[in-house]
Amino acid sequence: MKTNCLDKRCRKTRMAIKSCLMELMCEKDISKVTITEIALKADINRATFYMHYKDVYHVLDEIENDLIEKLFHIMDAADIVKSLHDPYPLFRELTNEINKDFEFYKLLVQSKNYSNLLNKVHSRFKERFLELSSGAVNIDMETLSFIVDFISSGITSVYKEWFCSNRNITLEQLSLSLSKLIGNGLNAVLDNQ
């Protein structure tokens, strides 16, 4: 019972550290963020920080790896062939994931290091998508690679713009619109192969 309590407390502390890093990265580049700033913002001492992480970049690595793991989980649970023709179920799951920790994702897209993080996530997403769709579609991998680049760049750009806007439409409405646009575009390309 006590271990569970400690595990829960550890998860809470690690989440606080990650959130505080994201907040600070909205103000400045990660290279300028100090452990002291994170500790003060998270209401912990430096020793507690070091119990969980070796440095600021270790925290960022964990954030990146957590995002990639969540994205892979969503992709692995989806039927990738069906998603090529109707991407809405994939978008719905992505929307659900964002809504679970909306403030964190908002901080993420507003951070100064968003593009570096995005490049890592994009690269891993592309690898995984091509791996899952290999042989499942009648299109050469080079063309599919360019299509995935185009789609993922567009999606991330739109989500960033949405988070930074007044958000007059819901995330669900945005996801539905994007899935229709992507599905129709992909279907046109796949039908012409």
Overview of the structural elements:
By secondary structure, this protein is an all-alpha fold. It has one domain (56-191). Helix content is 81%, strand content 0%. It is built from ten helices and no strands. Helix 1 packs across helix 2 (35-42). The protein is elongated.
Overview features:
193 residues; mainly alpha; 10 helices; 81% helix; 0% strand; elongated
Radius of gyration: 19 Å
How many angstroms separate the termini? 59 Å
- How many structural domains are formed by the residues? 1
What low-confidence regions span 5 or more consecutive residues with pLDDT below 50? none
| β-sheet strand percentage | under 5%
Described by strand count, sense and barrel closure, the largest sheet is:
none
How much helix, percentage-wise, in residues?
over 70%
| Oligomer kind | single chain
Average pLDDT, rounded to a whole number, is: 84
Number of helical regions: 10
Structural class by helix and strand composition? mainly alpha
Q: What best-fitting shape do the alpha-carbon axes yield?
A: elongated
Secondary-structure element order, as H and E?
HHHHHHHHHH
Query: What is the number of beta strands?
Result: 0
Q: What secondary-structure arrangement, pairings included, does this model have?
A:
Elements: H1 2-27, H2 35-42, H3 46-52, H4 56-77, H5 80-85, H6 88-100, H7 102-110, H8 114-133, H9 141-164, H10 171-191
Helix pairs in contact: 1-2, 1-7, 4-6, 4-8, 6-10, 8-9, 9-10
